[in-house]
Fold:
Amino acid sequence: QCAERIPEAEAVLDMLEKCPEHQKKGGFPVIVFEGLDATGKTTVTQAVKDTLNGVLLRSPPPCISQWRTVFDDEPTSIKRAFYAAGNYILASEIAKASTQAPVIIDRYWHSTAAYTIATETSGKVQDLPPAQDEVYQWPEDLLKPDLVLLLTVDPEERVRRLQHRGLEKTKEEAELEANSLFRQRVEESYRRMVNPACQEVDASPSKEEVLKTVLQLIKKHCGF
Structure:
């Protein structure tokens, strides 16, 4: 229905329809990095890609990320549908890339789910759906990664990094900064994800130390 009002929605749906169902992963590991803005995802994903001679992918993928600003201004349900569709379009890129090299991903399903759950819930962390709720489950029809690493830094350090970067804030980033309860709900939602769960990594130390920790976890969980 929204395709009549938003021309870009039709293009997204066309791409989604072209994606084969039940994507199969190749022989190389697929590693996802999650976390709030300014937790070091860009730096770490690039470093891991270079170290492992891998392929770096992002969600939403470039073929639709040009329309993010369009969908970010839409009602929550349409915006979330855009990001969810982006994950399935990305899955076809992951399937192809993982036959040739390790795949490093900057955000995937857990981001979409965590922000959706945190937005749909008001109040404190205690008001989130209970830990065993199905909202924290990975979708059965979406290609699953081998490892999900959640980068975290303490709130003050994260805000300091954001200010240092001096970038224009997204709506969600402004909300995270203004509303500590929202931030806590997002972070707790990440922690409750299962199948696969997030492995938490303290991203406060130096880039070299964080990279070392991350590579050890990849070796342990992916045997790579």
In short: The mean pLDDT is 89.
